Structure formats: C-alpha cells, structure tokens
Amino acid sequence: MDKNQHNFKAELILNDDFILANKELNNITLRVNNISQIEAYGIWFDVKIIDENAQEYEKADIQYSDSTTTDDSIGTIMSRSYKDIDISFAFNKIYKNNKDVIIQITIHDADNNTWKEELKFVLYKGTFDINVDTSTSNLKGYIRLPYNDQILAVDMAKGSITLPLLNEDMHYPLVLANSGALGGETKYSIGLNIATQDFSDFKNTGAYEDDDMEEEANILSIGDESIVSYIHYGDLDYWKITTPETAELFNFNKPIANAGVDQTITHGTTVTLDGSLSESDDNTISYEWKEGAILLSTHPSFTKSDFSVGVHTITLIITDNNGVTDSDTVIITVDADESETITKNSITYATVISPYTGKIWLDRNLGASKVCSSIHDTECYGDYYQWGRDADGHEDSKSDITSNQASSITNVGSSFILSSSTYNYDWAQNIDSDGNLRALNWNKTDGSSVCPTGYRVPNIEELEAETTDIGVNNINDAFNNFLKLPSNGFRTERGSMYNIGSHTYIWSTTISANNSRHLQFWNDGGGASSHARVFGWGVRCIKD
Fold first, then answer.
1. Strand runs (DSSP E) across 39-126, as ranges?
2. What pTM does this model have?
3. 100 strand-pairing partners
4. Residue 298 CB: number of other CB atoms within 10 A?
5. How far apart are CA 499 and CA 520, in angstroms?
6. Which residues are registered as beta bridge partners of 48?
7. Residue pLDDT, tens place only, 143-157
8. What would the pLDDT profile of 199-223 be if each residue is shown by its tens digit?
9. For residue 270, which phi and psi values (nearest 5 degrees)?
C-alpha cells in the first residue's frame, strides 16, 4: 500500500445486545479507522441500509446524532486513529423472526476518492423470556447463543433471561447441572414467555426426566405450558428451546384493512371510498378495491359517481411489504332518486327501487295515469299491448280492430290486429314467426320502442324475481307488492276485453316456442305462463 495514500476501515459497534424491528430507535457506533500512514482530511460519508438481497432497505429511517459532525461530515482523522459517529435508526416490524441486514458505508476524501464497505448485523422481530424458578438452590448451567456462539451463564434461584427470536431451523441449547454443591435433587420450573409453575407440591420425580445427551434433548417451544422437572445429584438436563415464527404470539400484527363505514347514497351522487385508516406495522401498503372480480382502484381512497341503483359490496385488499394481506368490505347502498321523473308518450312516470333485487322500475304500467291505490283502481290499469309491438295507438283498449296481418313490426298502423289459429294467434306471423325481431324491439333502451330511454321490457326471470320468487301468489299479493300490479285483465284475439278487475297480466320479452312468457295472477293463484302474442296485456318497464 502506498504510504501516501489514504485507506480506511469501518466497523460497527453495537450499543445493544441485539437490534429489534420494533419502530424504536436503535443506537450503534460507526467507527471509521484511518489505517493509512497519513492524515486524512475533508472526510465525509454516506450510509445505506440494504437487506440480504442487496436491495435498498426502504424501511430504515436513519438519523445521525453525532454533535461533532455537520450533516455527514467527519472532518479530519489522524493517521492510525479513528473517528466514532453515533448513528440512530429504526426498523418497522418484520414477520420473519430475524434477518440479516447490511449497512453499506461509503467514505469520501477531499480528493473525491471513495471507499465502500458492507457491514452486516442481524435484525430481530422481537424477544422472549426464559423464566426460571427453583426452590432448592441456584440453578446452574449455560445457554449457547447460536447467532454468535456466545455462552450465556445461568446461575439464579429465580429470574428470567431475555433472548431474541430465532429462525425455525435454529434453537437455543440449554444445559442445566446439579453439581455436588447443590446437594441431592433440585426441582425447577421453566416457562417460555409465561410464568413458571408453582411446584411446592411437586412429588412425581418421574415427570419430565430429561435425556443426558444434547442430541436427544426434549424441545421446549414458546407457547407451550411451563414445565416442572428435577435434576439428580451429578446429573445434567438438556433442553432445546425453539421460537416458531408466529406473528400473533408476539403481537407483531398483520396489516388491518379498513374500508370505512357503510354508506347509503342517492343514484348519481359521488361517493368517496377511503381506506386510509388501514393499519400496518409496515409503512408500505398496496391497495386493491374490488367489486367481485372487477378492480375499481389501486389508491388508498377514490371517488365514484356511477354506481348503479342497488346494493354494492366493495372489498378492500391491502398487502404489506412482507406480502401479508388483509381485507375488509364496505356496503354502498344506492337508492333511486325519488325526485326522478320520466316522460314517455306525454305521460310522466316516477321510479321505484326493488327491495329484493335493487333494480329500478317505472312506478306503474305503461299508459296508466296513476299508481294503483286499490286492487280495482281502473286508472292504474294502463294500456294493452300486443306482444313486441310499439305504442302506435293499438294499445288503447278502445282502438279500432283489423284482421290484416302486419307486414312490418314497427309500421303497423293504429288498429288492434285480430288473429286465429291460422296464424298461431299471432299478429305478425308472416314476418316474425319466431318472435326474435319483436323481442329485440322490446329490448331497445334508446327510447324508440315502448319504454323510455334507458328502460326496456323485462324478461320473465326479472319479473319472477320481484314477485313469485318472494311469495306473490295472487292478485292481492300483486297489488301489495312494491310494483303495485293492477288487476288489469286483457284484450282477446277478437278485440274484446276480458277478466277486467279479476286478473293481472304482464308481458315479458321471453320467447316460448310460438308463444311468449308473461305473469298472470288471479284471486287464488298465479305465476309465469305462456300465451299467444295476439293478446293485449300490460307492460311494466325496468331500467337497463
């Protein structure tokens, strides 16, 4: 080595027996040795803490506390001398019992030369206590510390020894002795993180008699019951003490997701979902907000204004820097805007929200001037549509009639079309025998068909979900349902009105062979059924 060239050696001096990952400041001394033969001046340094995979250890918060330095300046170090710098740092909690951490020291001189050195120490998740009690005399022996091979003496009548947690493939060997100075038999109790047992009445000298060879020693683990044993004169007891990686045992908490409180809002209102109250022993948390499999956001909080009417279960999943996850759910209930009104064909409708499915419906049948106030309220009967047909005037119960089959499904005229078995009791048999065109027509949501913009005619399953599936079985149930279904009767294939005031008939868009599905209720029965498309029945619209 050139005697005129600087050279340095750094070392760490731990001021504590071991460094804990408990968010509390730990103090060490960084000693920078000038091992060259010349004075070193203008010396400064920087420190990085990295983990065993040589990645920057972002959880370390380093604070320099040496009052003789300015920021990271060391100043001058005489030849063959050293400078001590106190460094304080803290680590967030970890989930492994311990891990190697590297401090990377870079030393700079006034000539812009640099020296790098990596110094390693072990970071521990926590500690546990070996509690010892004996009523005869001091218990003598030793514990070997596997992380540095240090021998720790055991010589006490009652007390405890605090040690750091080990990884699962390691253990503390504990050897206890009964020498001639102790006399005959020595009773003792050991508890790991729990109190020792009262052994004043201990008489079973066969209990817990341990092996005399270390490789055959019994294992004591944290969380086990405390043991009571004894040592004969001139005997040895060997124990292997293990510390399983159990985060909950030492209150090193998993992250705790907090999705906030349940909220009820009106449709169209902006709602804020806030997970900022989630907790983690690790400052690094990733966030995922989901509704089912749909990812809504990856931010701690976000806003959303397009929730549909109904009940939404939103799940917040958080993950800490150790890959440990937790989840929480929040319920967002979106009510229909009761002030919302919809006008179609010069009639203004309100909306109702289903208490069963959360779906939004018009408050009455198409063409009705009001919501039903009684089971025989004629003003709520509404119009009578032939299946799949637009509002072209035919739906009026007193419209003209014709026997001419339709040549179009959208430009038919205003007369109610009569039919017979010749045409499968259909009004458009010649142009749409399978009903697909008319089903598509009633499924339109652009306002060009019978329903207002954003609404359509429901399928039979949607009708059943609001009625028969929840116990609607007759016209009284239908009226008392939130849909307030009327006993509207229907218009027959000959154009006459039938079952007015005694039966409920509501079309769906569902096709059934040459017929279509509908709901039908009477005084003591009802349910879903299939009938010919020529009939004029009521229509209720659902929001898409």
1. 40-51, 61-64, 73-77, 81-90, 98-108, 114-124
2. 0.46
3. 122
4. 10
5. 11
6. 104
7. 998 877 788 888 888
8. 666 655 555 555 566 667 888 888 7
9. -80, 130
